[in-house]
Amino acid sequence: xxxxxxxxxxxxxxxxxxxxxxxxxxxxxxxxxxxxxxxxxxxxxxxxxxxxxxxxxxxxxxxxxxxxxxxxxxxxxxxxxxxxxxxxxxxxxxxxxxxxxxxxxxxxxxxxxxxxxxxxxxxxxxxxxxxxxxxxxxxxxxxxxxxxxxxxxxxxxxxxxxxxxxxxxxxxxxxxxxxxxxxxxxxxxxxxxxxxxxxxxxxxxxxxxxxxxxxxxxxxxxxxxxxxxxxxxxxxxxxxxxxxxxxxxxxxxxxxxxxxx
Length: 261
Prior knowledge:
Blueprint: E1 2-4, H1 10-20, H2 22-28, E2 30-34, H3 36-44, E3 49-54, H4 61-68, E4 72-76, H5 78-84, E5 93-98, E6 114-119, H6 124-136, E7 141-145, H7 154-159, H8 163-166, E8 169-172, H9 174-183, E9 187-191, E10 197-198, E11 208-212, H10 221-226, E12 229-232, H11 244-258
Parallel strand pairs: 1-4, 3-4, 6-7, 6-11, 7-8, 9-11, 9-12, 10-12
Antiparallel strand pairs: 2-5, 3-5
Helix pairs in contact: 1-2, 6-11
């Protein structure tokens, strides 16, 4: 079995770039996953594991081999692991995985889909929280419009606690996604302050997409004008908005309630 004990190793340096640079992830078509649960969920989600790196005093070779799915197995020392690991809590295992294309055309939807769409979310923590909510509700898909963050950013992987791998995810421009929805007769309800009606008055039991924007600027005019209906969560305090992942959860679980969970 191959062993790496130096942080100056060229392969280790390339993995550091994968952690730090979206450009490196895009060029190589790969990204890093840290942790047993996350790697297990990636395998379950159909991701191809190229390489497993493990710290033998924390993660046994047997455990690492089970998660390698016939990929290459490399034993590393503590110095190398600490150079590559992103989290404070350590499980002694990392994987190099192949990224997926995330094309709208790749989505496989049910006959009566429920979809979450987020326009231009910037903060990896918010994206991760949205993916966790989508997994909790077992949505058909999550679509990111005009993405500003690389979805394989280690902060997205970490904050989603592996739900990056449990959801069907696609990206596209606002126009591409609106065309996609209309071609499939999917109603879409846009959470916005302008020209809106209370979210609980709408029927989400037919093919539905729920669309949320950023807290700072909200949804763009293109979404607001094309929507089946603009909706709003009534605010009873001093502020006029809440965290995007919280707002999405309220809308999603109202739709789930109407559908009988």
